[in-house]
Design brief:
Layout lengths: L4 H11 L3 H8 L3 H9 L6 H19 L11 H23 L1
Length: 98
């Protein structure tokens, strides 16, 4: 799994997440996300693979209707859910690295 601009763009658009929240999941800054949307791409092979993994996870969450979050969900609850998603992704990264 590697960076795919179309899949990445779909994940950003369909997730309903802010760039700050997406940055937390991908482990990059908001300017980096904007660069990737504009035509850039991950510069390092390992990051390229990781972005592919996270993108597919976000799209699966959209398919399962876990995302986007309900509009009624307040910021503290959103932050908690993003934290849990990030923890799950990092656990996946540990397994992926083995």
């Amino acid at each position: 799994m590697t960076f795919n601009r179309a899949r990445f763009t779909d994940a950003v658009a369909q997730s309903g997440l802010s760039m700050r929240e997406l940055g937390a999941l991908y482990g990059v800054t908001r300017p980096t996300l904007y660069d990737w949307l504009a035509a850039g791409h991950p510069k390092h092979f390992t990051l390229d693979q990781w972005v592919g993994v996270v993108t597919e996870a976000i799209l699966r969450a959209v398919e399962r209707r876990l995302l986007p979050f309900p509009k009624s969900l307040l910021r503290p609850a959103r932050n908690e859910r993003i934290g849990k998603m990030r923890a799950a992704l990092l656990e996946t990264k540990k397994l992926y690295a083995r």
